[in-house]
Design goal:
- The protein has 388 residues and is an all-alpha fold.
- It contains 17 helices and no strands.
- The longest helix is centred in the middle third of the chain and has 41 residues.
- The chain starts with 8 loop residues before the first helix and ends in a 10-residue tail after the last helix.
Length: 388
């Protein structure tokens, strides 16, 4: 056997990270930018158009465990490449939509592609390649993929201005076919399935023990808060006294903080136990909320930075903690099962948080901080599972 038949880790990491940037920008953040234009041109209610993101998330939640089993048994290369085709198909359906039916089908396709192609699959590929030493590569992919929010909003907005919302969707579809698909085909090793089956064996059944329940609560809370903040943070900051322009500018600090904390994890924090970093991450949103409640609008940047830093670290933890506790066996399926409560929480999170803000911005902010403290409690008592 060749000593190292794979491309260098940095090359694989860069390729997967770029793919995640494009995947997130063209799916998770798409409707947030183009939704109003789509609704206006197709004469649909904006509420209906924006609610289709929940439909996509529901489709992703349903498909994710099956995708995880497939990846554990056969490797992640084929699912990742197929996800690019499904992303492109969904974006084409949206771009060609003349009414609600095709638009809904396109969003469902995006949800299926998200199950196949977002962080879970690249992380599983890295675990297959590097086993217990995958933390650095996982952090690197999350670092680059975090640009999906920072670049997705302005790039999609620019594409919409230049090409219209239909052209923007078709341009992102082309990016999946012309960039992600050939890059993944060239860079990701072909023998992932064989490597997995030879060295790890068939996936063991996932048991909902205490550690599984704690992690599922932790990640469900994290993704609930993340989705609520991505939808409502500017509105929340306006409620605490900022102008709309200032609130939009301040909310942009979330992406900056997420990328910065992942860079710090990549350079320094990966030397520390991942559970310690996760525990600290759960406290960053409450610290920002406490500052905003205590000092008012002058502390709005602290709130945005706290949310971004905490969410940035928790994204890395989603990939690293299951590996550090249970090891690489059945990693993809276990991660998908762990993530399903989080995906369900994402579906209803924005609507629930919006109602809370309508009732009381202070109540909404306090409730989110309290949920983070529950997440903090879930980080205790999590130990590496003994080998069986």
């Amino acid at each position: 056997m060749a000593s190292n038949p794979h491309p260098p880790q940095t090359v694989i990491m860069l390729a997967l990270g770029l793919g995640q940037t494009i995947a997130f920008a063209s799916s998770f953040y798409l409707i947030g930018v183009l939704g109003d234009d789509i609704a206006a041109e197709l004469r649909l209610a904006p509420t209906f158009v924006f609610s289709l993101m929940s439909v996509a998330l529901a489709a992703s939640a349903v498909a994710a465990p099956s995708a995880g089993r497939w990846i554990d048994r056969h490797g992640g290369k084929a699912p990742l490449l197929i996800s690019n085709l499904v992303f492109a198909a969904g974006l084409c359906l949206i771009g060609l939509a003349q009414g609600p039916v095709l638009l809904t089908l396109g969003m469902i396709a995006l949800g299926l592609a998200m199950a196949l192609g977002l962080y879970g699959t690249p992380f599983a590929i890295l675990v297959t390649l590097y086993g217990d030493q995958a933390r650095r590569a996982i952090t690197g992919v999350a670092l680059i993929g975090g640009l999906g929010s920072s670049l997705g909003f302005p790039v999609t907005h620019w594409l919409g201005q230049q090409l219209g919302w239909q052209g923007a969707c078709l341009a992102w579809a082309a990016a999946h076919i012309l960039i992600c698909l050939p890059l993944g085909a060239l860079v990701i090793p072909r023998d992932l399935g064989g490597h997995m089956s030879a060295n790890v064996g068939p996936p063991a059944p996932v048991v909902w023990d205490r550690a599984m329940i704690q992690l599922s609560v932790l990640f469900a809370g994290a993704w609930f808060i993340s989705t609520c903040m991505s939808t409502h943070l500017p509105r929340l900051l306006v409620a605490f006294g900022l102008s709309v322009t200032a609130a939009m500018s301040t909310a942009a600090l979330v992406g900056l903080a997420a990328v910065a904390i992942r860079a710090l994890e990549f350079a320094v924090l990966r030397r520390f136990p991942p559970l310690l970093a996760t525990r600290a991450a759960t406290l960053m949103h409450p610290l920002g909320a406490a500052a905003l409640l205590t000092f008012g609008k002058v502390a709005a940047p602290v709130m945005a930075l706290g949310q971004g830093a905490g969410n940035g670290m928790l994204t890395v933890a989603k990939g690293v903690l299951p590996l550090s506790i249970w090891g690489p066996e059945g990693y993809a399926y276990r991660s998908a099962v762990l993530g399903r409560p989080a995906q369900i929480a994402q579906i209803g999170g924005p609507a629930l948080y919006g109602l809370a803000i309508d009732r009381s911005p202070t109540l909404a902010l306090t409730g989110g901080a309290a949920l983070c403290l529950v997440m903090f409690a879930m980080t205790f008592g999590l130990n590496k599972e003994p080998s069986t």
